[in-house]
Amino acid sequence: DKEVRAIFLRLFAQLFQGYRSCLQLIRIHAEPVIHFHKAAFLGQRGLIENDFLTKVLNGMAFAGFVSERGPPFRVCDLFDELVAFEVERIKAEEGNPPKMIKHVRELAEQLFKNENPNPHIAFQKVPRPTEGSHLRVHILPFPRINECRVQELLQEGLARSQGAPPATRGDKKCVVPAGPPVGMFI
Q1: Is residue 180 part of a domain?
Q2: CA-CA distances (angstroms) from residue 33 to 72, 108, 121, 128?
Q3: Residue 90 near residue 11, CB atoms below 8 Å
Q4: How many domains, the chain?
Q5: Residue 158, pLDDT above cutoff 80
Q6: HEC letters along 20-62
Q7: What pTM was computed for the model?
Q8: Is residue 111, in this structure, part of any structural domain at all?
Q9: What per-residue confidence (pLDDT) applies to 121?
Q10: CA dihedral over 38, 44, 50, 56, signed as positive or negative
Q11: Range list of H helices, the chain
Q12: For residue 146, what is the DSSP state?
């Protein structure tokens, strides 16, 4: 699963290499508008006649990609690092399948680590039901809810949340690396 995702991550990093140099941030409105210069991107890469890439750039998914990944100051991730810093590595691996496979496996491992930051925590599996368990009828009476106790728990929770410092997320925003200009990929 992770290796397939790593292959697609690498493919899209290659496909959109240098896209940040064709972004323009327009700050006229209250919310900044991000514009992508498709003609410049295709022209500088020598892909004006490429029908597939033209359709990808005109699609709604790419418009969402630009609006999500266009801001210059946001949380960076593995894709940003690939697009900005791994240009030469990806080029060098094009004719060397063993190196490419090694890189895909490294990316897959990084994806796994991103999703499982604490691998030492064991997840408990739900045991399979025993044979014949479906024949036994287990009807437990539904417990009555004590309204006073529910109110007490709500008040305790509110008191704790008001006194606690605001929760902060571990992801830090940073300036997104621009990477090399588009003209480098002709």
Answers
A1: no
A2: 12, 34, 43, 53
A3: no
A4: 1
A5: yes
A6: HHHEEEECCCCCCEEEECHHHHHHHHCCCCCHHHHHHHHCHHH
A7: 0.61
A8: yes
A9: 65
A10: negative
A11: 2-15, 38-45, 51-58, 60-69, 78-85, 87-93, 97-115, 147-163
A12: -
